[in-house]
Amino acid sequence: MNRHILIVDDDPKIAQLIEIYLTNEGFAVSKANDGLEALSKMDEAHVDLVILDIMMPGMDGLSVCLKIRESRTTPILMISAKDGDMDKITGLMTGADDYLVKPFNPLELIARVKSLLRRSGYTSLAQPGQPSGPAQEEHIIRIQSLEINKQTHSVQFDGRAIKLTPIEFGILYLLASHTGRVFSSEDIFEMIWKEKYYESNNSVTVHMSRLREKLVKEMDGEKLIHTVWGVGYKIEL
């Protein structure tokens, strides 16, 4: 089945251009003109990724992103004409996985979409042909009462699910797979985003902040990820 992309933009020309490029790449595409319509479409059918404009009448993209994150970890690529660092940080802090500034090269947008989908191989059930039951243990990392399952992209603490976005899960799994090792922001970006790190990139800092906030809240205040000042981040057992 083709991956389903939802485009949310009140500019029909931009939405149509994005749709043309996505359909040429084999994606199934739906469009919404505003935030409320977008949320309605997500309730009606499964969506694999959302391309979300910030500046929309009524319910803006930031509000839509927050609403989606209340119940879903669907990857969100936010697009906006606002190109300041604080605009990008605000978008990422509301729950977006990536941020692209208008006007953008459509080929770059397609590359970002494919990159996000590669990292979002989450599912609530094992896929046909994959091991289940005891054989699944090789995909699981346990740190005290925390359980990280790579196969299902799920995280639990004392049996309670912790909802993480694909990028947050990727960062956690990377650190948990190498306990005691310190990863710099550059290391994390290049291993998770699969792109070359560039100076003044706030993406890792913002996603790390969200991840740590969620873990501390769900783990009853326990601090799992530690900062090694001037070096990077690690999980110390």
TrEMBL record:
Domain Response regulatory as annotated: residue spans: 4-117
SUPFAM superfamilies recorded: C-terminal effector domain of the bipartite response regulators, CheY-like
PTM annotation (4-aspartylphosphate): residues: D53
Domain OmpR/PhoB-type, residue spans: 138-237
InterPro entries assigned: CheY-like_superfamily, OmpR/PhoB-type_DNA-bd, Sig_transdc_resp-reg_C-effctor, Sig_transdc_resp-reg_receiver, WalR-like, WH-like_DNA-bd_sf
Chief site of localization: cytoplasm
Superkingdom of this protein's organism: Bacteria
GO cellular component: cytosol; protein-DNA complex
GO MF annotations, alphabetized: phosphorelay response regulator activity; transcription cis-regulatory region binding
Keyword Phosphoprotein set for record: yes
Subcellular localization(s) per the UniProt record: Cytoplasm
DNA-binding positions: 138-237
Record protein name field: DNA-binding response OmpR family regulator
